[in-house]
Amino acid sequence: MLPLRARILCAAVQSMMMRIGVDVGRTKIEIVALDDDRSTLTRRRIATPVTDYEATLDAIAGLVRDVESEAGRRATVGIGTPGAIDAVTGLLKNSNSTVLNGKPLHRDLEARLGRELRLTNDANCLALSEAIDGAAKDADVTFVAILGTGVGGGIAVGRRVITGRNKIAGEWGHNPLPWMTFDELPGPQCYCGKRGCIETFLSGPALAAEFTSLTGRTMRGDEIAKAAETGDVDAAAAIARYEERLARALTHVINVVDPDVIVLGGGLSNMERLYANVPSLMQPYVFSELVDLRIVPAMHGDSSGVRGAALLW
To answer: Cα–Cα distance between 216 and 262 in angstroms, integer?
Structure first.
């Protein structure tokens, strides 16, 4: 055991440290620095170098160094990324940021920054943030769904994220959309190599692509959602389809996990109508006469995931 003086010094140094979280997305990299009380010291976003792995590593390391330099403090670092580190090979797998797949992302970032890092799936980070002190802080079992550029999921039980033996627990977006209608079959092609994945129906790009194919109009997913609110008939029909599909997809989770609360994150989770409409649309599919759970937006908003990455420490 260290002498008392050394232990006091170590404790003082630790109390001065901050926690950094980094969310590595397909289109943006976000960083946040949290103080000891989990308050935000700084947050910023940059564009992801989409097709360049080495540039992505440099961008992440540069953000961490800049934040530490500005704060005058060294930090612990947690990383959230689509996909997961394979427990056998140590390589990233299942990421919709495909340039990262098959790469030793965890090891390479540790080498760039010269310290131990903690890295997990971005939906797991969101689940951790919301389970600790967010929308699910009073729940025993929580399912988190990310509805954004991709579709991911995470599970938290008793404020602890469940990753699973193969690090794929909660990967809801790469199951097939359940109870497909005739016109939905066989489903769009997914980057994972299969057809009809939930992600190919419920991601922002999927919503936009179907809208264009049906109407000839080009709009982003968030723009379609806003247009639906202002009386655009095409947009309203697209969002109604989206809600019904989301209800079917979440029902699979309920029938398997039966969570107390479902927390929605990602850009499309900002549609307030989802929380009013989706629960009743689930009823025909849930294996229960009563659907007794809450569906709520992430309390910490679009940045809850990067916050959860910081809380990995």
So the answer is: 34
Measured CA to CA, the distance from residue 108 to residue 313 in angstroms comes to 19
Q: In 3D, which of 79, 27, 23, 30 has the Cα closest to residue 50? A: 27
**Beta strand pairing status for 261-265 and 294-297?**
parallel
269: in domain: yes
pLDDT digits (tens, 9 = 90+) for 151-188: 999 999 999 999 999 999 999 999 999 999 999 999 99
Same domain, yes or no, for 166 and 247?
yes
Same-domain status, 275 and 197 = yes
Is residue 4 in a domain?
no
The answer to whether residue 2 sits within a structural domain is no
> 279 and 206, same structural domain?
yes
255 and 210 in a common domain = yes
Pairing relationship of beta strands 261-265 and 141-147 according to DSSP bridges: parallel
- The residue with tokens 């990310």 is 146
**pLDDT tens-place string over residues 56-71:** 999 999 999 999 999 9
Among 169, 160, 179, 187, CA closest to 246: 179
Cα–Cα distance for residue pair 204/64, rounded to 1 Å: 29
Query: What confidence category does residue 224 fall into, taking pLDDT thresholds of 50, 70 and 90?
Result: very high
Terminal-residue alpha carbon distance, the chain: 23
Taking 60 as the threshold, does the pLDDT of residue 2 lie above it?
A: no
Count of residues making up the chain? 313
Q: Which helix (H) or strand (E) element contains residue 11?
A: helix 4-16
* Residue ranges making up the domain that contains 280: 137-297
Q: Is 224 helix (H, G, I), strand (E, B) or coil?
A: helix
Question: At 141, which CATH number?
Answer: 3.30.420.40
- pLDDT band, residue 6 (cuts 50/70/90): very low
